[in-house]
Amino acid sequence: MSGLLGSATPASEKRRKFRRGLESGRLLRFPGAFSPLVAKLVAEIGFDGVYVSGAVLSADLGLPDIGLTTLTEVVGRGGQIASATDLPTFIDADTGFGEPMSAARTVTLLEDAGLAGLHLEDQVNPKRCGHLDGKAVVETSEMVKRLRAAVAARRDPNFIICARTDAAGIEGIPAAIDRAKAYADAGADLIFTEALHTPADFEQFREAVGVPLLANMTEFGKSELLTAGQLSEIGYNAVIYPVTTLRLAMHAVEVGLREISSAGTQSGLVDQMQHRSRLYELLRYTDYNQFDSDIYNFSLQGATQ
């Protein structure tokens, strides 16, 4: 029964694992998952953790990534994904959904939901995707208040609070580095360096900032897609692939739907589909069946009606 209906690993242990990983000197890889089922596959393949992207969550709701999702929606979906595996799950909390007190409540609710950590960004409200132009950032002092409130609300000291700075493309890398240092001084455990362009940009951050760093390897954005080996060599501690699984899935879905529309049948697509038996394996149907058999193994004898 262990881990059948939810994670067998307590959230506190997942958080310890995340913190130890950031201190290990090796690169942690967190692919994005848009559903608990995708998270199960991430875990089975052997990644270090699961990431829940705000852009993906909003897209899955049919909305653009411009700050329209609510704290309730993010906590609900994040909790579902976190409970699906024994891996630490790290989530995008946008700007904290309001003022510093709102950021504090965001930490409390995500901690209760079983997440291992979150990141808060220094954009103004409403935020926008980090790889779009036209972003604006708040004053460093305002982001510091946001982070201090989040740190103060944390009850589990291993819950990771990450500060994302979008300032590199607005104020330049030196200013973004200054912000990163201020955010670390405010208690951030991890710095998310958003929308850097080249390996040299990542190296510049690594040389200047002493706390763990997170890279975002999103497709079709401003950052060159660096390999895990390159990021590890530069000295980054974690990398996320936020939208990759959604883009793969949506491309396949669109191709399939157009085929059905034009051909009138999905028969030509069957070889491209995950087989039912593979889905059942991922969902552990056999274990559920055994659980049922062990519980409901009685028979009625001598019944008169």
UniProtKB/TrEMBL annotation:
Q: Which cofactor does it need?
A: Mg(2+)
- Which keywords describe this protein according to UniProt? Lyase, Magnesium, Metal-binding
Reaction it catalyzes: (2S,3R)-3-hydroxybutane-1,2,3-tricarboxylate = pyruvate + succinate
Q: In which pathway does it act?
A: Organic acid metabolism; propanoate degradation
According to the UniProt entry, what is the EC number of this protein? 4.1.3.30
Domain of life the protein comes from? Bacteria
Q: What is this protein identified as? A: Methylisocitrate lyase
The organism named in the record is Mycolicibacterium alvei
